[in-house]
Amino acid sequence: MAGLNRSGADDEGMAGSPPPAAASVALDAVGKRYAADGDGDPVRALEHVSFSVADGEFVCLVGPSGCGKTTLFRVVAGLTEATNGRVLLDGTEVTEPTTDMGVVFQEYHLFPWLTVAENVGFGLERTDRSSAERERRVDEMLDLVGLTEFRDAYPKSLSGGMKQRVAIARALAVDPDLLLMDEPFGAVDAQTREMLQRELLDVWASTGKTVLFVTHDVAEAVALADRIVVMAADPGRVREVVDVDVDRPRERGDAAFAEYVGVVRELIGAGP
Amino acid sequence: MATETGPEPTGDAAAAIGLGDPRRLLRGSLGVAGFLVVWYVVSLGSPAYVVPSPLAVAGAFGSELASGDMTTALYRSVRHWIPGTVAGTALGVGAGVALGWSRLLDDLTAPLVRTLRPVPPLALIGFAIAWFGINDWGAAFIIAVGAFWINFYAAYGAVEDVSDDLLDVGRTLGVRGDLDAVRSIVLPASTPGIMTGIRTGLGRCWMLVVASEIFGVPGVGREIIRASNNLRVDQAIAYILVLSLLYLLVDVAFRAVERRVLVWRA
């Protein structure tokens, strides 16, 4: 395990020390409790989650089921309110959804009544761009995800992989600072998943966006991330942050790749 | 899972009444022919004021049409059918969307809605006469009440079923406030349910045309009641057929519109 750069959660400012200045996203001791059914103690879905994602960085969030990954995703997106702590995006506290953040969901959630181009342009309609600018931006995004020839198709006629490309283009169209993704490739077959992963890295490289990517697939995290935040369950918390020190493009057959996968799996599998 | 390969909806009126499929058409024709034969046989042993023969009905249809009575009755019915249907549909959809979306409005109106809901439109005839008189407006009121509830519940249910996920996506893309959410997500997402309500309402309104003319407003319904009172069952059936034909026409036209509006649907 030598050579793997690991930093324990304790080094990440768990005690509420100020987040790093250059951070694009910073989570500061985020906690979330749900009232339990009956008389039990409230469920601690998240406790004291602190980490940050630097500008332009690609960070993956992995963890066992029930560790609060999706809750954390919703808190960062501003869709669910945290019980304690706060989320900062470029220094501003996130209390509700913001167009500075492009959000991609596992189940695509395209607007079925809109064409591909209209879906991509949905967020742009609410900006002060002129219609010519919006059109140009939509074309640019469709080109980025390779769906130019499907611009007038409705979502019903697209495959899962194509739908997720549309969702990514839609999220990127308003030019957000952060791309936040919740298991975006979890609903497509393995082959499509690897293709989408490569495409996402290309998009990331060409746009320079900061990405926070939630997944349960460890190999996916190792293939994509600069750093992997490994969570533990009960209560949901950060177990460890792993730097993935492998040059891209990464080959799944490489020894280093396999070693990282093993390390992260071990961290996830370790008891509470 | 590449592009969808499901059967394309054959988007014409012919398909809607079964003309698209030759076997279905043949079987349908056989069914009608069989029914006419049975009807004819039964009519042989019955007086015309109980069961008139199909030929007598065809004759009555022809003479009523030729005399112009039928077209006049039809025109008079349409004069309250259209305003009643349009007003009831518009108010029903509007109220259904508003109450389906706003918890506050729903809570405020729930007792009222539950009290008024079980009242059959026909029980309101007295109000129709008092408020509007024995005229097209009175009849339109009865029809509108019927259209209102069907559309109200269809729209209410459709709005309730709009996925929270789509609303979440909308918020991340800058949708702010109730009006924006309703206009850009709730309405389009609930259009299929609303359209089904409108279509059901259109049929119901044709039935209510007859009921709304009971108290004396002229029209097809009035002719049916008049013919029945005079034991002219052949004429009554002829006018009933007119209603059926018109309903079929409106339904086929609406389905064509629906297919166009909902072209995005799987």
Q: What is the global morphology of chain A?
A: globular
- What is the N-to-C succession of helices and strands of chain B? HHHHHHHHHHH
Q: Note poorly predicted spans of chain B.
A: 1-11
Average per-residue pLDDT of chain A, rounded, comes to 89
Shape of chain B: globular
Strands of the widest sheet of chain A, in order across it, are 1-11-10-4-9-8-7
Helix/strand-derived class of chain B?
mainly alpha
Whole-angstrom Rg of chain A: 19 Å
Helix-strand string of chain A: EEEEHEEEHHHEHEHEEH
Q: Separation of termini of chain A?
A: 22 Å
Rg of chain B (C-alpha, Å): 23 Å
- Give the strand tally of chain A: 11
Mean pLDDT score of chain B: 90
Short note summarizing the structure:
The complex is a heterodimer of chains A (272) and B (266). Chain A is 31% helix and 25% strand.
Would you mind describing this structure in some detail?
- The complex is a heterodimer of chains A (272) and B (266).
- Chain A is of the alpha/beta class and 272 residues long.
- Chain A contains 7 helices and 11 strands.
- Chain A has a 7-stranded mixed beta sheet with strand order 1-11-10-4-9-8-7, with helices on both faces.
- In chain A, helix 3 crosses helix 4 and helix 6 packs across helix 7.
- Helix content of chain B is 77%, strand content 0%.
Describe the secondary-structure layout.
The complex is a heterodimer of chains A (272) and B (266).
Chain A: E1 6-8, E2 23-34, E3 43-54, E4 58-62, H1 69-77, E5 84-89, E6 92-93, E7 101-104, H2 116-121, H3 131-144, H4 160-173, E8 178-182, H5 190-207, E9 210-214, H6 218-224, E10 227-232, E11 237-243, H7 255-269
Helix pairs in contact in A: 3-4, 6-7
Chain B: H1 13-16, H2 22-44, H3 54-67, H4 69-101, H5 103-116, H6 125-132, H7 136-160, H8 164-172, H9 177-212, H10 220-229, H11 233-261
